[in-house]
Amino acid sequence: MAPEESWEVNGTSTTPSTAEKLLVHHKENHFTAGEVVRDVILGVSDGLTVPFALAAGLSGANAPSSLILTAGLAEVAAGAISMGLGGYLAAKSEADHYMRELKREQEEIVTVPDIEAAEIGEILAQYGLEPHEYSPVVNALRNNPQAWLDFMMKFELGLEKPDPKRALQSALTIALSYVVGGLVPLLPYVFIPIAQKAMLTSIGVTLAALLFFGYVKGQFTGNYPLSSAVQTAFIGALASVAAYAMAKLVQST
Amino acid sequence: MAPEESWEVNGTSTTPSTAEKLLVHHKENHFTAGEVVRDVILGVSDGLTVPFALAAGLSGANAPSSLILTAGLAEVAAGAISMGLGGYLAAKSEADHYMRELKREQEEIVTVPDIEAAEIGEILAQYGLEPHEYSPVVNALRNNPQAWLDFMMKFELGLEKPDPKRALQSALTIALSYVVGGLVPLLPYVFIPIAQKAMLTSIGVTLAALLFFGYVKGQFTGNYPLSSAVQTAFIGALASVAAYAMAKLVQST
């Protein structure tokens, strides 16, 4: 869900060399470990929230622990597949889409080079550049078809070259993380047969987990960690209140 | 979940004028209606999948329709809030992040202009451009701080200026769409008290809805609609099989 976000080091940047700065700032330098971490945070946050809320809601409807576990674990299984497989297929579609756009740009560069060259000009003109200022760039690109293609993919279409292995890795990471996240609020119901008691423990551990993950998420996305922690916990709390209220409402009809 | 995707007209492009082509291709020309549609597709697809799977799973565990409705509607309430509020807060954080990065770039342009100017060069050098080819661009940008700032935000950091109203609109759209999507598989359980019978109707209407929405999603994202329809329905089917199996498993312990 969270789109591309850049890295910060403790919320500020030092004054490094140009190369260092580019290394920190440049979005293209994806650290694979960082993307795995992001997927874990995404999956666990979602897994913590809805299974927790569902379990709390059913406790409110006086369901026994066994039923809460049935519903909760079924939801975790469904949610993990929906997120994991859904994410994988979406990433594959994106990769296919990228390849189709790449082919089209390649063709256009060969068949209608003047139009494509004019497009470079249009892109740079948006930054107040005059033709005499950008025409050296246009000419250089015209003589370097590979670079020209890369330039159009990035600056005209805004498309990044996807990594085929990442789609599968990302899907598996998110799905597994969702399962781990979902187990946190549900495990109390395994060990505590009286649902209302289990719910109290579930609330306790889940809120703690939400605060922790929200904090970590904030650090990695460059947002204020405390604020992120509170927001993450608040979403979980509100979702469970809504589930609780809905369950009570349906039970009363 | 689905990142930025570009528009196609019936899967191919005609050979239009340069301006038209830029209009169709350029990611910056977001049509607001298109973004609303995308949010609807996102919310409904998710809403169709997990509530459906949960209901099917609980039917498999021989739960009565009333309980399936309780769990299903509680999940829809929790899921809508998790997606809606979660999405809204994520968008707000992104907007805050953008403003912080904007301020930082602004400062850097003022305090360390030579480093920033060198960065423009580094970005363009990646496309095989020589200093004598890109220095007119660098000089022009140095004399136009606003354009320089825009250029760095887009080409160095890859950040788009977020629209503040969109965050709220997007969240509400996704949440409402999730509710609508979730109601489709659950309504049969309102009218058909015998869960196993209701489940058959639920499977029928939900599969039809998944195929339809998958098809529409394919058209809007520029992927093959039939393929998209089958994939969307497949995810729903697999998620419900997993939920069903999990529910049976938990019930048997």
UniProtKB/TrEMBL annotation, chains A, B:
Annotated organism of origin: Musa balbisiana (Banana)
UniProt GO MF annotations: iron ion sequestering activity; iron ion transmembrane transporter activity; manganese ion transmembrane transporter activity; metal ion binding
GO cellular component: vacuolar membrane
Protein name: Vacuolar iron transporter
The protein's assembly and partners: Homodimer.
Family membership: Belongs to the CCC1 family.
Biological function: Vacuolar Fe(2+) uptake transporter.
A biological process from GO: intracellular manganese ion homeostasis
Alphabetic keyword roster: Ion transport, Iron, Iron transport, Membrane, Metal-binding, Transmembrane, Transmembrane helix, Transport, Vacuole
Catalytic reactions on record: Fe(2+)(in) = Fe(2+)(out)
Bilayer-crossing regions: 67-91, 171-192, 198-216, 228-247
Compartments where located: Vacuole membrane
Main localization of the protein described in the UniProt heading: membrane
UniProt membrane topology term: Multi-pass membrane protein
Pfam families: VIT1
Domain notes: The cytoplasmic metal binding domain (MBD) is located between transmembrane 2 (TM2) and transmembrane 3 (TM3).
